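Input.
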Amino acid sequence: MPLTILALASYFKGNRFLERLKAEGCTVYLLTVESALHEKWARTACDDVFAVNNFHDRRKLINAVAYLMRSRKIDRIVALDDFDIEVGAFLREHFRMTDTGHGDSQARLFRDKLAMRVKAREIGVRIPDFCSIFNHDAVRDFLARVPAPWLIKPRSEASAAGIRKLHTADEVWKRIEELGDEQSFCLIEQMVPGDLFHVDSLSANGKVVFAEVNAYWRPLLDVYQGGGIYATRTFPREKPEVAELRRVNAQLLEGFGLGWGASHTEFMKAHADGQIYFIETSARVGGANTAEMVEAATGVNLWSEWAKLELCRGTNNYSLPPLKQRFGGVVTSLARQEKPDTSSFTDPEIVYRLDMKHHIGFVVAADSPQRVEELLTQHMDRIARDYHAAMPGQDKLGH
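Output.
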């Protein structure tokens, strides 16, 4: 029997998810926020689109969804953006739909950086040393025991937003004082310099069934706080790191109980000891055109397959599409121009061009990782010279 899905999205993303649901015969409702209502949603895939002012006022959000449910039977609530994971869990708890997705405690493992570190330590996944910022004596012990530099991280921001790199205990205490009542919403962690990877996965019936290993050109913290151009690419699959990252990724997601759906998980290979350290995970598709890159390299569209997984939830009916063994890459940058002219980029390997004001970006695909590296290097040089603009990273905690 076809399902009725309510998709939550406070940010414009997930059209392929909506289109796949509709193609499978589902009734699809999209609930977004007023500021994103004008975006190019796949409205032909939606039976209706609704908007609220924001997702922060939980009581008003409950009232809005409850009003919709008076005349519509909703079988699944699915959150498409990182910031909406806890919102979706909150609604499932209220409407007693936790048998169709994560409830509050489970969702925290995929949003709350402290919760995911505590759980990773419990299941034996290697992590940088860390400490909550609840008790100041515990923080003093951490600073005395763990060498600098340290990172103070918001527990529920995305990417590198709000992260501070600190080198002395005085800097740490100054930052903690600045945080005031926001202290408990942060953690402090040892910074582990290294090469940053992301594993983009699909899970079915509690097991990881697809995992593509990709390597960032530079750590996201460097790009976010130091400015520069974002790039990532498929990591050569014969490298020993790939097998190890896939193993740890499966240990993590299966230990966290993702169950069904997509995940974007980051790991650091430390320069000091060569070990793999878990950094953070999520229960959604990676941003910054990760889905387009993975599809170009493997033939698997993460959004579309996630939609299919939602429909297969609780069964053994899911199967992956045939896999390709190509290599992909992404380069993205802020641009000085409102609508950059990219017509001079004529490489046949370009499979996607970013269409976003004051941004420039490409997804490339080739039969060898060497060709992807060559293309990304060329594109980054040209973008830096002719297009790139920089702006300071935003500190969501407001200090």
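Residues 369-386 form the longest helix (18 residues).
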